[in-house]
Amino acid sequence: MLLDFKVLAVDKQTKARCGEIQLANCKIPTPVFMPVGTQGTIKTLTPEYLKETGTKIILCNAYHLCLRPGEKIIRHLGGLHKFMGWGGAIITDSGGYQVFSLTGLIKVSDNGVEFQSPIDGTRLFLTPERMTQIQNDIGADIIMAFDECVPYPCEQDRASVAVKRTLNWAERCLSAHKNKQQTLFGIVQGGVFKELRIECARNLTEINFEGYAIGGLSVGEGSFLMNEVLDYTVEYLPNDRPRYLMGVGFPTDILDAVERGIDMFDCVVPTRNGRNGCAFTSTGKIKILNSQYKEDAKPLDEMCGCYTCQNFTRAYLRHLFMANEILGLTLMSLHNIYYFQNLMQETRESIKKGAFKDFKTNFLLKQSETSKN
Amino acid sequence: MLLDFKVLAVDKQTKARCGEIQLANCKIPTPVFMPVGTQGTIKTLTPEYLKETGTKIILCNAYHLCLRPGEKIIRHLGGLHKFMGWGGAIITDSGGYQVFSLTGLIKVSDNGVEFQSPIDGTRLFLTPERMTQIQNDIGADIIMAFDECVPYPCEQDRASVAVKRTLNWAERCLSAHKNKQQTLFGIVQGGVFKELRIECARNLTEINFEGYAIGGLSVGEGSFLMNEVLDYTVEYLPNDRPRYLMGVGFPTDILDAVERGIDMFDCVVPTRNGRNGCAFTSTGKIKILNSQYKEDAKPLDEMCGCYTCQNFTRAYLRHLFMANEILGLTLMSLHNIYYFQNLMQETRESIKKGAFKDFKTNFLLKQSETSKN
Q: Of A182, A285, B233, B277, which alpha carbon lies 20 to 30 A from B218's?
C-alpha cells in the first residue's frame, strides 16, 4: 500500500523533522517510539495500559510469532491486532536480526537461512518469500523486508556480501508481498562502511519502498560510529518517506538520531530496564532496589502523569521488587514507556517550535541530576 | 471500633444469610469473598483492575508485612491502604497460620512464638501484644487476634492446649488493641473436636468480639469434616456479628459454608490457580495449556463480563502461557477473581430471593459440563 506520510515541520538548525503517518486505524505522529512486543504482548502490560502511555504503534517479531503460536493461527483468529487485543498500529520485524543474533547453528545462502527452532529443535528454512508470506498472514500495518544483519565488528568483505544479499532479498520480498493493505519497508545494511551504506541506500531507493529502515546499528559500535553512519546514510534516503532506525534505543541515542533526520524508533529498553528495576525519570535514572528509596514517599518522577506515578510511591515499588511481586514489573514498565512517549511528544513539540536544539541540551543537562544513583 | 453489621435476609431452608458491613471507606455486602494480597499486592493486578472485578475488601498478611517492608514503614507512608494504593477495605491476618505453617524451627510458649525470619534468618519473637501493635501500625479496617493453629490430623490434647492458648491470647490482643478505628475479630480454634470448638466459641463470645473467624480448617480434613465443624460451631456464635471462615476456598466449599451461616471468605485459589493456568468458568474449570484451546476464538467464559473475557480469546491466553508471558498471569488472575465476585453476587441475590438452595444445586450441575477438561 502507498503510505500516507507528511513532513509537517523541519528544524532549521538540524535535520530533525516532525511528521505524520496515516495508517488504517490511526494517525502516527513522528518522530515516534514503538515499544517492543516480541511475542504479541508488550511484556507485563494490558493493551489498555499500553494505550494510556500514549503509545500509537508497537513492534512485534514475525520470527517469534511464526515459531509460536504460528502465523496461520494468528490469521485464523483475525490477524495480530485482534489476536492481542491492540487497537493501535503494528509493525512486524522480518526476523533478520533475530535469526542472526538468537540462534546458534545457522546456514546462510543466497536463497535464505537454515536454522534450528530454539523452541522445539525443528529444522527451519526462512527465505524472503516465506518471511513476507508470514508477515502477510500476521497482518501488521507495516512489514519489513528480510535482511542479512552483520555483527560488529565485521570485515568489509563480509558486510559487502550481506548488502548484496539484502538488496536481492529486498526485491524478492517486494515481489512476494501479497497483502496490499500492508506497507513494506526496505532495510539499509552495510555495517559501519560508508560506501556500503550508500550503495545499499541508493539501490533500495531505486527499488522504491514506502519507507526505509536503517538496520545493523546499536550492535556494539557505540554512539559515535552510529551517528556517523546516520549522518551519511540519511543523505541518500528520500525526504518524503519515513526513516526508521531499528533497535534504538536510549533517550540520548534517540535524540541524536532525531537530530539526524530519523522518524521512527523501537527498543526493548523501557520494558527490559523496567523489569530490571530501573526507571527513567526527568532527572535521570532510578534503580528502585537502592536502599535510599526504602521510605521514600515520592513517586518515581514528580513531573510524570503516568498511572504508576499518580498512584504509587518509590517505597511501595521498592517493596514490590524486594518481594519479587510481578506488579512491580508492570508498574515500572508502564512508567518507562510513558516516559519514552512523553519524551517523543516533547521532541515533536520542540521541532514544531523550532527549538529542538535547546530542548535536547536542556534534556541532557537535567539527566545528570540523579545520575549518581 | 464497634462494627456496623446488618443481617438483611436469612434463607428459610438453610442458615445462609445476606448482610452488610459498613466500614470507613465502603460498604461490604455479605457473603463476601476477599482476594488475598499477602505482601500488600494482589499478585499481578493493579488496584484499578482489582476494583473492576467487584472486589470491595482484600486480606493482607501482617506477618509477611512486618517482615518486609516492616510495619513502621507502612505506617510512615500513611498506612496500608495508601501504601498499596487500594481504595477499598482491608483485613489483616495476624500471622498465626503463617507462623505455624510457613516456618521451620519454631518454639511456642504461652507467652508467644519464637522463630527465625525466613527472609534474613533473624530470630523473632511474636506475641499477641506485638502482633496487635503490628496490625495497629499497618492500619487495616479489620484486624485478627493472634491464635495458635494446629495441623490436621492433631491429637485432642494438643488441640486443647492450643484452644486455651488462643483464648488467653485473644484477651491479650483485645487489651493491647490501641487503634480504635480498627475492628478486632476473634478466632475459633479446636481442630475437628466438637467440645473444643464449642468451648472456644463460647469463651470468645464471652470476651465479646465485633466479629468471629473460624480458623484451622481447610488444612487437610476434607469437606465433610469441615462442614461438620461449621454445623456445630456456628450455633455458638452470635447472630448479630459477622462470621468469617478463614482460608476457604473453592466455589463449592464456599457455597457449603454460606449454607451454614458463614459471611466472609478469603482464599488464594483464584489468583494461584490463575497463575497456574487454571480458569474458573460458569461451566467448569479450564486448563488453558490444553492443546484443545490452540485455535479457540472463544473467551474463557462466554457468560463473563470481565476485562479478560471481553478482550481476549482462549487461543491468545494459551499463547501467553506457552510463551511464559506475564500478561497471561494477570489476565487469568483478573478473570478468576471476577468469577469469584460474580459467584458471591449471585449467591447474595439468591438468598435475598429465598432461592439459595436452587441456586446452589443449579451451580453444581453446571460445573460438571466441562469438568472432563
A: B277
**Alpha-carbon distance B297 to nearest alpha carbon in chain A (angstroms):** 6
Interface A:B, Cβ pairs < 8 A: 110
Same domain, A36 and A131: yes
Coil/strand/helix, residue A372? coil
Q: What range does the domain containing A342 cover?
A: 276-370
Tens digit of pLDDT at every position of chain B (373 positions): 679 999 999 999 999 999 999 998 799 999 999 999 999 999 999 999 999 999 999 999 999 999 999 999 999 999 999 999 999 999 999 988 887 776 567 888 999 999 888 888 888 899 999 999 999 999 999 999 999 999 999 999 999 999 999 999 999 999 999 999 999 999 999 999 999 999 999 999 999 999 999 999 999 999 999 999 999 999 999 999 999 999 999 999 999 999 999 999 999 999 999 999 999 999 999 999 999 999 999 999 999 999 999 999 999 999 999 999 999 999 999 999 999 999 999 999 999 999 999 999 999 999 877 544 4
B43–A327 CB contact, under 8 Å: yes
| Residue A36 cell numbers, joined | 517492543
Q: Angle of helix A156-176 relative to helix A128-138, nearest 10 degrees?
A: 50
Indicate yes or no: CB of B297 within 8 angstroms of CB of A43.
no
CA B297, distance to chain mean position in Å, is: 34
| ipTM for the assembly | 0.97
Q: Does A271 touch chain B (CB under 8 A)?
A: no
* CA–CA gap between residue A177 and residue A359 (Å, rounded): 41
Cell digits of residue A180: 496490499
Q: Which residue in this structure is represented by grid cell 467440645? A: B195
How many structural domains is chain A composed of?
2
Distance CA B366, CA B251 (A): 12
Sheet holding A123-126, edge to edge: A106-108, A113-116, A123-126
CA–CA dist B158, A103 (Å, integer): 60
The count of residues in chain B is: 373
Helices (H), chain B: 47-52, 62-67, 71-76, 80-84, 96-102, 128-138, 156-176, 194-207, 222-234, 251-259, 269-275, 307-311, 314-322, 326-352, 356-367
Q: Is residue B258 located within the same domain as residue B321?
A: no
Beta bridge partners of B20: B6, B29
Claim to verify: residue B65 and residue B143 sit in the same structural domain? yes
Verify that B88 and B36 share a domain, yes or no. Answer: yes
- Angle between helix axes B326-352 and A326-352 (nearest 10 degrees) is 110
Indicate yes or no: pTM above 0.80: yes
User: Are B158 and B220 members of one domain?
Assistant: yes
Residues A128 and A79 in one domain: yes
Number of residues that this document lists for chain A:
373
Where a domain ends, among A267, A297, A317?
A: A267
Nearest to A7 by CA among A23, A24, A29: A29
Alpha-carbon distance of B316 to B294, in angstroms, equals: 8
Question: Which residue of A41, A44, A53 is the best one to mutate when testing the B interface, meaning the one whose CB has the most B CBs within 10 A?
Answer: A41
Cell of B357: 438452595
What was the pLDDT predicted at B102?
A: 61
CA B76, distance to chain mean position in Å, is 27
User: In terms of DSSP bridges, do strands B32-35 and B264-267 run parallel, antiparallel, or are they unpaired?
Assistant: parallel
Q: Which residues of A touch B307 (CB under 8 A)?
A: 46, 48
